[in-house]
């Protein structure tokens, strides 16, 4: 989604801004721009539709030099992805603004500003902020004061940064619903919507909190909280290895991240397993006490993280006997929800900044949940900060827009939650916890075995390259895995893919099946296997081509129109984690064959910080 970078220094900052934008490219965007205050004291900009590389070419043709500037990658919401709509937006050539988020009352403000004589050159909600700030500066000449007054008139979500030709020694920023971080340097300071953008210039960061306004100068940073009081925000040193920085031996980040799964699953388990049981304190010191009171679980998440939640429902009810509901955050947040007593609210998110999931958590807090647990990959995210308990997945930065390693580590975390709740309540069957703990320890090896099927899956991908539609089938906890497989395929190869619980086939979707509609099935060796085999017959009888990922002991064999890929044997409870791997590989290879942009699929963003 949109990205912000800002800088104030004693050196030329254009290259820093552009490098920051490049580091935010993975988030998905459709245009990019940069505005710099030049030596003559006027603000100049370059904007381009398309990749940051286009902007770099524009800057090579017509360079911009300056010591203060802001830059942006835009993911279109209001107005098409055109150069006019790309940020930074100007007001009268005196004020420049970049903005992430959505201003809901932009139409009313636009009308008022037009009446005041402001001329709009874009269809964006952001241009309204630039003119409003310019107008406010007439009465309040200090940029930070004017910004404080401006944001009071905005309804919606924003992370924004602004500069003015009249105050060349500062950059101002405001956060409400869209994250911002200040990067602290020596005699220079920076701003970004994600610290990854600034890792080339600093490893010291200060995170703005909701409602904060910041004034950033070369030698100082001043922050005011939502009530307008000056506040200090803690600065943190970031020590993460450079693992996300490049693709290593891989052609795409997605493939690198798929192959990291044995390592990151291992890391997510580290320090969380005792000899025969899960260490409940991994969820925090108050976890055991809180878990003892839990009678129900409500899971809320979006996209891939929602699919992880759906798998967890099978585990929580099937293994721990705890009633569980799962809902997509964008529905949950706007629905009248009846909360059962003693319900634990669990949010799942890779980024911890997904607008709908955050809003659902905030609503949840008003609804009388027993407490909140965030399963998240980013320790410094809003979701983590606002939840009572946290279990961090240790997937490391995920750069590919299509989530892979975040999903499998979420599943591991959710299995730890299931076993912890079962342990605290004594509701697990005898020996189950010890067995699953032992199997979890073996899981990284199993995942490595599944990854070794790489070339087989690459061959199978050829079946899909010319197809336009696909069905994914699964039963039980493999149904959400099928949903995740379908999501991956549609996201990166743009092939229409739908997932169904296999038993639903004859209630409608079977009508679609013919030789042009391949059907992908995940078939571990469990009590549903025989029923699944009948469903597969139904597909074959209609000429549908089958790709079946089946347990090596499942006694399914290749035949005309049936491609069986033997999977390493695994305990049924952990099969959803293992069977995810071939589906990720399949969508990856189909996308490569189709020549799509694997890491940055069209129209999508990595972190969905707007509704
Ligand atoms: C799909 C994908 C998305 C995210 C969703 C939630 O590959 O990545 O569906 O899962 O946008 O994002 P997080 O987990 O960051 O809340």
Automatic annotation (TrEMBL):
Leading EC class: transferase
Stretches assigned to the Glutamine amidotransferase type-2 domain: 2-219
UniProt keywords, alphabetically: Aminotransferase, Cytoplasm, Glutamine amidotransferase, Repeat, Transferase
GO-annotated cellular components: cytosol
Chief localization: cytoplasm
Active site residues according to the UniProt entry: 2 (nucleophile), 606 (for fru-6p isomerization activity)
GO biological process, alphabetically ordered: amino sugar biosynthetic process; carbohydrate metabolic process; fructose 6-phosphate metabolic process; protein N-linked glycosylation; UDP-N-acetylglucosamine metabolic process
Short name of one Pfam family: GATase_6
Known partners and oligomeric status: Homodimer.
InterPro entries to which the protein is assigned, alphabetical: GATase_2_dom, GFAT, GFAT_N, GlmS/AgaS_SIS, GlmS/FrlB_SIS, Ntn_hydrolases_N, SIS_dom, SIS_dom_sf
Encoding gene per record: glmS
Entry GO MF terms: carbohydrate derivative binding; glutamine-fructose-6-phosphate transaminase (isomerizing) activity
Location(s), subcellular: Cytoplasm
SUPFAM superfamilies in the record: N-terminal nucleophile aminohydrolases (Ntn hydrolases), SIS domain
Reactions it catalyzes: D-fructose 6-phosphate + L-glutamine = D-glucosamine 6-phosphate + L-glutamate
Protein name: Glutamine--fructose-6-phosphate aminotransferase [isomerizing]
Lineage, broadest ranks: Bacteria, Pseudomonadati, Pseudomonadota, Gammaproteobacteria, Pseudomonadales
Its EC number(s): 2.6.1.16
Function: Catalyzes the first step in hexosamine metabolism, converting fructose-6P into glucosamine-6P using glutamine as a nitrogen source.
Record-linked HAMAP family: GlmS
